[in-house]
C-alpha cells in the first residue's frame, strides 16, 4: 500500500519536531503518556507552528487554538500507537527505501531533491528532521497496512459482481470481429460419442493456440452457420451477438481463443480477431520459487541470513537442489510442498522487497538473502512472459475498489480499537492554567 504518498509531504511537515524551529526555552515536559512512550510539549508546539505556517501560506482559516491543539494531540497519539505496533513487528524503513521515497515525492511535486531541501530551508524546516519524520510516517503506514490487511475478507462473488458491472460500463460502443467453430452433437448421441466430440474440440483449441489457421479448421470441421465463411461473423457489438457468444466474450482482447464451451447443440470455439473501442492490457508475469525462513527465539536474523546464504552457495555449487532445499527448509507450506514454486504471478501481489527482487533478478539467478515482513528469503526467477490480462485487469480493478473501500473502513476501526486499548495519560501540571 502506498496510501501515504499523496499527502506525505503535508503530513510530514505537520509532524516535524520542535528542534526544526528554534530557540530553546523552558525545559521540555511530557504532556501525554502513550503506553510506554511519551509525547513532549516540543512535539505539540512544532506541529502547531507548522499547521499555522501552512495555513497562512494557503490563506486557509484554522479553528480555535483549543480545537487545533486537540486535533494535533490526537494525531500524535495515533502516530505513536502505530509506531509501537511497527516496533512489535520489527518494521524498519532503511535509508535506501527512504531515499527512494523522497526522490519519488520530489518528482511528483515536479522538483529535484535539492529543490525540495531548499523549499524546506526557506520555511525554516530541517531536512534531517524531515527525513526522520518521513521515515516515521512510512513506518506507521506499513504497520497499519499489515494489521488492516488481516481484517479484510473479500469474497470471490463480490469481485465477480463488481467486475461484471465494470465490464458493462466499458463494453458500451465496443465492437468485436469474431470467428466461430461449432462441433455438433446429435440428439441421440451416446456418451462415448459426446466425449469424442469434446476431445475433438479440445484438440482443435490446442492446434489454434499452437498457431493453426482458424479459417482452415472452420472450413474442415465447423457445422455452424458461418462455416463456409471460414467461421467469420464479422464486426458485432456484444448486444448483437448470439447470447452464447456474449456470455463468453467478457473483456477478452484481440487474439483470444475461447472454449470449448457447451450449448444445446454441441461445443463451440471462438476467436476474437480484432477489437475496436476496448483497451487491451498486457502484463508481465513471473514464475519464481523461494525459500522462506522465519525468525524465532531459536533462530535470529543473523542465523536465518547465514543459513540461507549457506543453502544458496550449496545450490550454486550443485551440492544441493533448490526444490529439495525448499521442501526441507522453507517455512512457506504452500510453496514448500511444490519445491518452493509460487506459480505464474504478477509481481504486484508481493510485498515491496519481494516484488523488487522478482522484477529485477535475471532469469536463472538466485538472490542473496533478503528480509521482508514475512521473514528471510532467497528467490529465483524461473521464467517471465507477457500475457493478455484484460479480463484479469478488470477483476483486479474490482478487487482494488473493494479493497480500498474495506481498507478505509477497517483502518478506522483498527485505529479506534488500538486507541481504546491503550494506556493514555495526561500528567497534571500545577503551572497550567494561569
TrEMBL record:
Catalytic activity: [protein]-peptidylproline (omega=180) = [protein]-peptidylproline (omega=0)
Molecular-function GO terms, alphabetical: peptide binding; peptidyl-prolyl cis-trans isomerase activity; unfolded protein binding
The enzyme's E.C. designation: 5.2.1.8
Record GO biological process: Gram-negative-bacterium-type cell outer membrane assembly; protein folding; protein stabilization
Subcellular location(s) of the protein: Periplasm
Cellular component GO terms, alphabetical: outer membrane-bounded periplasmic space
Keyword entries, A-Z: Chaperone, Isomerase, Periplasm, Repeat, Rotamase, Signal
Alphabetized InterPro entries for the sequence: OMP_Chaperone_SurA, PPIase_dom_sf, PPIase_PpiC, PPIase_PpiC_CS, PPIase_SurA, SurA_N, Trigger_fact/SurA_dom_sf
Every PpiC domain range: 173-274, 283-383
HAMAP family, sorted: Chaperone_SurA (MF_01183)
Function: Chaperone involved in the correct folding and assembly of outer membrane proteins. Recognizes specific patterns of aromatic residues and the orientation of their side chains, which are found more frequently in integral outer membrane proteins. May act in both early periplasmic and late outer membrane-associated steps of protein maturation.
Notes on the domains: The PPIase activity resides only in the second parvulin domain. The N-terminal region and the C-terminal tail are necessary and sufficient for the chaperone activity of SurA. The PPIase activity is dispensable for SurA to function as a chaperone. The N-terminal region and the C-terminal tail are also required for porin recognition.
Protein name: Chaperone SurA
Lineage, highest ranks first: Bacteria, Pseudomonadati, Pseudomonadota, Gammaproteobacteria, Vibrionales
Gene: surA
Amino acid at each position: 500500500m502506498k496510501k501515504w504518498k499523496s499527502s506525505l509531504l503535508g503530513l510530514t511537515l505537520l509532524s516535524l519536531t520542535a528542534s526544526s524551529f528554534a530557540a530553546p526555552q523552558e525545559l521540555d515536559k511530557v504532556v501525554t503518556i502513550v503506553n510506554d512512550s511519551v509525547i513532549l510539549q516540543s512535539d505539540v508546539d512544532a506541529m502547531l507552528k507548522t499547521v499555522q505556517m501552512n495555513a497562512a501560506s494557503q490563506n486557509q482559516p484554522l479553528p480555535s487554538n483549543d480545537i487545533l491543539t486537540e486535533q494535533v494531540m490526537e494525531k500524535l497519539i495515533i502516530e505513536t500507537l502505530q509506531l509501537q505496533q511497527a516496533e512489535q513487528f520489527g518494521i524498519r524503513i532503511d535509508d535506501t527505501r527512504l531515499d527512494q521515497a523522497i526522490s519519488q515525492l520530489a518528482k511528483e511535486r515536479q522538483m529535484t531533491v535539492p529543490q525540495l531541501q531548499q523549499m524546506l530551508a526557506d520555511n525554516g524546516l530541517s531536512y534531517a528532521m524531515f527525513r526522520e519524520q518521513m521515515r516515521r510516517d512510512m513506518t506507521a503506514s506499513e504497520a497499519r497496512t499489515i494489521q488492516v490487511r488481516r481484517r479484510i475478507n473479500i469474497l470471490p462473488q463480490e469481485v465477480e459482481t463488481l467486475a461484471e458491472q465494470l465490464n458493462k460500463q466499458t463494453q458500451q460502443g465496443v465492437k468485436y470481429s469474431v470467428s466461430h467453430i461449432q462441433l455438433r452433437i446429435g440428439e441421440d448421441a451416446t456418451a462415448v460419442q459426446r466425449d469424442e466430440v469434446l476431445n475433438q474440440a479440445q484438440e482443435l483449441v490446442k492446434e489454434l493456440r499452437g498457431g493453426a489457421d482458424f479459417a482452415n479448421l472452420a472450413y474442415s470441421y465447423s457445422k455452424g452457420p458461418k462455416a463456409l465463411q471460414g467461421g467469420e461473423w464479422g464486426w458485432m457489438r456484444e448486444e448483437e451477438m448470439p447470447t452464447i457468444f456474449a456470455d463468453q466474450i467478457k473483456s477478452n482482447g484481440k487474439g483470444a481463443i475461447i472454449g470449448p464451451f457447451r450449448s444445446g447443440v454441441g461445443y463451440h470455439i471462438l476467436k476474437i480477431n480484432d477489437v475496436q473501442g476496448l483497451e487491451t492490457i498486457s502484463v508481465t508475469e513471473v514464475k519464481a520459487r523461494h525459500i522462506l525462513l522465519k525468525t524465532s527465539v531459536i533462530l535470529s536474523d543473523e542465523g536465518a541470513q547465514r543459513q540461507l546464504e549457506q543453502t544458496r552457495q550449496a545450490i550454486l555449487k550443485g551440492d544441493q537442489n533448490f526444490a529439495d532445499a525448499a521442501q526441507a527448509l522453507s517455512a512457506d507450506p504452500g510453496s514448500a510442498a511444490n519445491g518452493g514454486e509460487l506459480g505464474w504471478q504478477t509481481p504486484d501481489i508481493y510485498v515491496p522487497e519481494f516484488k523488487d527482487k522478482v522484477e529485477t533478478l535475471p532469469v536463472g539467478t538466485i538472490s542473496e538473502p533478503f528480509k521482508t515482513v514475512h521473514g528471510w528469503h532467497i528467490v529465483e526467477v524461473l521464467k517471465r512472459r507477457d500475457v493478455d490480462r484484460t479480463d484479469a485487469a478488470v477483476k483486479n480493478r474490482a478487487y482494488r475498489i473493494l479493497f480500498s473501500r474495506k481498507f478505509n473502513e477497517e483502518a478506522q476501526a483498527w485505529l479506534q480499537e488500538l486507541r481504546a486499548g491503550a494506556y493514555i495519560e495526561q500528567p497534571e501540571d500545577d503551572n497550567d492554567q494561569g
